């Protein structure tokens, strides 16, 4: 994190008040809980699977804007992890897929 902070400082980006990884993970989990509850309320049986694909796409395509190869790699890994989890899911059991939120947003 210190190296990332240094690169932000060098670029002139203010880092004061940035949340730490634990806060980001907690926020992501809270947002997921809210969204999953709504999906359940409206009978969306494949919410988790579709969210996993959306997150994987977001992680993977965002890497093209990242100059720092370590950070780009750190973003690529959860994309690949999610895609692999979806691929091993039996399509007939897609409604049982659960997004591993905490594992994806580990700081």
Can you describe this structure?
By secondary structure, this protein is mainly alpha-helical. It has one domain. It contains 5 helices and no strands. It starts with a helix and ends with a helix. The model is unreliable at 11-15 (pLDDT under 50).
Shape label: globular
The end-to-end distance, rounded to whole angstroms, is 10 Å
State the share of residues found in helices, binned by percent: 55-70%
In this structure, how is the largest beta sheet organized? none
Overall tally of structural domains: 1
Our estimate of the beta-strand percent is under 5%
> Low-confidence stretches at least 5 residues in length (pLDDT < 50)?
11-15
Strand tally is 0
Key words describing this protein structure:
107 residues, globular, 65% helix, single chain, mainly alpha, 5 helices
SSE blueprint:
Elements: H1 2-11, H2 21-41, H3 47-62, H4 69-87, H5 101-104
Helix pairs in contact: 3-4
Question: Quick gist of this model?
Answer:
The protein is mainly alpha-helical and about 110 residues long. The chain is built from five helices and no strands. Helices cover about 65% and strands about 0% of the residues.
